Amino acid sequence: MKTQQELLSARYGPQPVPDMLWNDQIAALVSHRTARAYLSAAIKPGSIEAIVAAAQSASTSSNHHQWSVVAVSDPALKAKLSSLAQGSAGHGNPHIDEAPVLLLWVADLSRSAAIAAKAGVPNTAHGYLDAFLMASVDAALASQNAVIAAESLGLAVCYIGGMRNCAAEVAELIGLPDLSYVVFGMALGYPDPERMSAFTPRPQQAVVLHHDRYDVHASAQALVTYDHAFDEMRGVLRERFGLNLKEWREGVRGSVEMSYMDGRENLRTTVQERGFKLK
After folding, report:
1. How far is CA 128 from the centre of its chain?
2. Do 173 and 80 meet the contact criterion of CB atoms below 8 Å apart?
3. Residue-wise over 206-237: b if at least 16 C-beta within 10 A, else e?
């Protein structure tokens, strides 16, 4: 485990590091790194069950548990899902194929709908946007608990937003019921120590932390120092993995262009067809 100063320097780069309280749990969280290279070793028995126990211990709106997770370990099925997650340029996510397990985190209103239907209660609220958002947030909260648990077991993860590129096909492939969709995937496995990702630096806290009122000016000013910190990380990834990431602001600008959607522009249609009316 690195020291507090080493971890904060890795996380914030050459930017000012804030004074803060510290303990082992915070150190473990700040130590997080996304893994894009995995060993072929199978995950130890009982690991996924422990991870799900942690996920189920996350907050869930009204104790309704409106999420599910599908653990995919079959290589052929995983390969099909990897293909569906590829962008239009065919870049894909090769770490899906390397990782022994792909977890698919599902926003899932189907159980609640079935309980209501059995009782003869009209399913009205699920037609509104908040129900879709509530289930999606539940899945996200559960997944982040799962990440923390996985890392405590020596495992590592990589979130896969590309599972939404072909949301309808993914849902059909894994047999999802109506009123459910895959919010994102998560590659899971033991990280290859020879191909570890660099720490991704974060902006100064003043970019995201506001007190009492949102301060647009302070946030913009603090963001200036982030460009250099991100550039240092880009250099490490280029040298270690051959990744040629864009400058941070260039990447942000690209994220507002239609090409960034890469199939996700169809997501509204897909989820509406699956029963989320989004009123």
Report:
1. 24
2. yes
3. bbeeeeeeeeeeebeebbebbeebbeebbeeb
Distance CA 271, CA 279 (A): 12
Task: Supply 232's token pair.
Answer: 């240092």
d(CA 259, CA 5): 40
The answer to whether 203 and 222 are in contact (CB under 8 A) is yes
Rounded CA gap, 137 and 78, in Å? Answer: 25
- What the block records as the tokens of 132 is 């879709």
Kindly list the averaged pLDDT for each block of 10 residues, start to end, along the chain of length 279: 88 84 96 93 98 98 96 96 80 85 98 96 95 98 98 97 95 97 98 87 91 95 81 67 69 81 89 94
Beta bridge partners of 94: none
